[in-house]
Write a structure and sequence with these properties.
The chain is built from eleven helices and 15 strands. The protein has two domains: about 1-110 and about 255-330, Rossmann fold; about 120-250, Rossmann fold (3-Layer(aba) Sandwich), CATH 3.40.50.2000. The protein has about 325 residues and is an alpha/beta fold. The relative contact order is 0.20. It has a six-stranded parallel β-sheet. A four-stranded parallel β-sheet has the order 8-7-9-10, sandwiched between helices. About 35% of the residues lie in helices and about 20% in strands.
C-alpha cells in the first residue's frame, strides 16, 4: 500500500522520499506498524517527527486475536512507539476509537490514482481464477472445490511485485479471501490492485462493507462463495470490470482521500507548504511481501536497519534468500 501513499501525496504536490532502513530528520516520517523491540528507543533518540500506518486490529490484549509470542511482542512494541507518534492513519475504520486514545487518528482508504494503473494488461487472460497469498486449510478447501470446475493458479512461492502484476493480468477472476475468520473487511490493497487492473473480482463476504467492497460487490448473506465465484466467471466479467474501474475512479480519488487525511492529522503542527515539505516513509521489509520498497540517500539519515527482522529476497527451489542488516543469507 506504500504505492497509494506515495501517489496521493505526490498528487497533492508533496515531496516524498522513502527508505526501508533509514529515517529522515528533515521530513515527517511515516512508519508501518511492524515494530520490533528496541525500535521505540532508537526512533525517540533520533528526534524525528513521525506518524504510524496502523494495519492491524487491536483486540484488547494484542493484534488480530493472535496470542502467539511474536504477535504479543509486536503489539507491545507498537504501544511503545505510539507514545511518541504525532498521528496514526488506520486502515480499518472500526479501530478509530482505540487508536484515537493514543494520538490524533484518521481513517485512510486506498483510492484510485492514474499513477497506479498497471502498465501491462493481458487482453486474452488464460487463467480462470488465481490467488496470491498465504496458504491456509480453509483457503485450500475453497480452491480445491473451484479446481473441479475451472483452472486455478496459486503459486507455492512468494511472488515479487512484478510477478503479482503479471498473474493478475493473466487471470479472468481474481480471488480475495479474508485474512482470518474474524477479519471484518476485504483487503484494501488487493481489491484496489484488481480494480485498477480491470480484472474480475470474487471477494469473500465480510462483516463491514467498505467503499471498495461496495463498488466490487460481495456475496449475499448465506451465499456459497464457490458458487458466487463461478457465477462471476460465467458472467460478462469484462463489462463489470470496466464498470468497477470507472466507479472507483469517480467515487474514490486518492488525491481527495489523502487531502482529507492530511487535514485531519496535521493541524497540530505547521503544515509544510506544497512542493517544499516532504514525507519520508520507512517501510519495514517484513510488512508485506508484495509491497514496493525504496531506498533513499543515506546522507544525514539515521539507520534502523539493525532493528528490522530478516526479509525474503527470493525463493529458488527449496532455498530462501533473505537479507538482514545489509547482509544476505540462504
Amino acid at each position: 500500500m506504500a504505492d497509494w501513499l506515495e501517489a496521493g501525496l505526490k498528487e497533492l504536490g508533496y515531496k516524498v522520499t522513502s527508505s526501508d532502513t533509514y529515517v529522515e530528520p528533515s521530513a515527517i516520517n511515516v512508519f508501518w506498524d511492524c515494530f520490533q523491540p528496541g525500535m521505540a528507543e532508537k526512533i525517540f533518540a533520533a528526534g524525528v517527527k513521525f506518524g504510524i500506518i496502523a494495519t492491524e486490529i487491536p483486540d484488547g490484549i494484542g493484534f488480530n486475536w493472535r496470542n502467539e509470542p511474536e504477535w504479543l511482542e509486536r503489539y507491545s512494541a507498537f504501544r511503545e512507539v505510539a507514545k511518541g507518534a504525532s498521528f496514526i492513519w488506520t486502515m480499518v475504520e472500526s479501530t478509530l476509537p482505540y487508536y484515537s486514545e493514543l494520538c490524533t487518528t484518521a481513517y485512510i482508504e486506498l483510492g484510485f490514482s492514474e499513477k497506479l494503473i498497471p502498465k501491462y494488461i493481458n487482453d486474452i487472460p488464460t487463467i480462470d481464477f488465481s490467488f496470491f497469498g498465504l496458504k491456509t486449510p480453509y483457503r485450500e478447501s475453497v480452491v480445491s472445490r473451484l479446481r473441479a470446475y475451472a483452472k486455478v493458479e496459486w503459486s507455492d512461492k512468494f511472488l515479487s511485485t512484478d510477478e503479482v502484476a503479471l498473474l493478475i493480468a493473466k487471470t479472468k477472476i481474481n480471488l480475495s479471501f479474508k485474512q482470518s475468520e474474524k477479519w471484518p473487511v476485504p483487503s484494501p490493497t488487493r481489491i484496489g490492485r484488481l480494480m485498477m487492473a480491470k480484472r474480475g473480482i470474487a471477494a469473500e463476504r465480510t462483516e463491514v462493507v467498505t467503499r471498495q467492497a461496495d463498488i466490487v460487490g460481495l456475496p449475499s448473506e448465506g451465499e456459497d462463495f464457490v458458487d458466487f465465484a463461478l457465477n462471476k466467471l460465467k458472467s460478462n466479467w469484462r463489462a463489470k470490470a470496466e464498470e468497477v474501474f470507472e466507479s472507483y475512479r469517480v467515487l474514490m480519488p486518492m488525491k481527495q482521500i489523502m487531502q482529507n487525511v492530511v487535514d485531519k492529522t496535521f493541524n497540530q503542527f505547521q503544515k509544510p507548504k506544497k512542493n517544499r515539505g516532504s514525507f519520508a516513509a520507512l517501510l519495514p521489509r517484513s510488512l508485506r511481501l508484495w509491497q514496493k520498497l525504496w531506498r533513499g540517500s543515506k546522507k544525514s539519515h539515521i539507520s534502523l536497519a539493525d532493528l528490522l527482522p530478516p526479509s525474503l529476497v527470493k525463493s529458488i527451489g527449496c532455498w530462501n534468500i533473505v537479507t538482514w542488516n545489509h547482509q544476505y543469507f540462504a
